[in-house]
Amino acid sequence: MVEASRRAAVRGPTFIRLLARLADADAAPDAQPLSDRLSQWIEWTQTLALSAALDGAPVVAGFGAAGTVQAEAQECARVRRMLAAAIDGDRAFAPPRAGAAIAGGHSAAAVEDAGDYPFFRQRYLVLQQTLEAGAGRLRERLRERLTVASPELARLAALDAVMERALGRRERSLLGAAPALLGRRFERLRERAQDAADGGEPDRETWLPRFRADMREALHAELDLRLQPAQGLLDALRARAND
């Protein structure tokens, strides 16, 4: 407990801080400026596209023809609800069901994975793909609206498209580390339950619900992170409408 209290607080988005807490990991503050990080992540070929996006907006007829900001805000809310429901409704979080449980009252998820982590890892990866696809489609939709809203917003849309392509591989690599960190959490909870059982086999329902809750929380935090670019585009569209 004393050692944990001395651990430096992890800075960054909620998703990063949550994973660090679940994995009981130390994360030293990164003193490297963001501009230096970006220079390492963006390939030189992408800098040409960035330069073109910053130089000016593409010529698009019919500026100001976009739909209402309210309609886009409603679409953002709908996508968020849909993706959140996909997380909460996944079979990894299925509670014990009468008539579908086996001896010991194990849930459908516990029965399917036999108490091992690979099942939950596979479900996390599937849900990550769902979140990436849903957030990506929403982001593309908002860019289309910005492209016809004004020259300034068209430039922002072009810049966002380039940044998404430039940083996409790095983003997938970083987010791909989440299942491994959750695996450490899974093993630690199981080991604690085994210790408490004095060498016997503990009932999985004494510790699996805690892990499921942690995994669900991590996925919702990742959803928030993935929707941040779309939220930024929506905010830009809203600011333009309020001018």
UniProtKB/TrEMBL annotation:
InterPro entries: DUF3348. It holds the Pfam family DUF3348. This is DUF3348 family protein. It comes from Lysobacter enzymogenes. The lineage of its organism: Bacteria, Pseudomonadati, Pseudomonadota, Gammaproteobacteria, Lysobacterales.
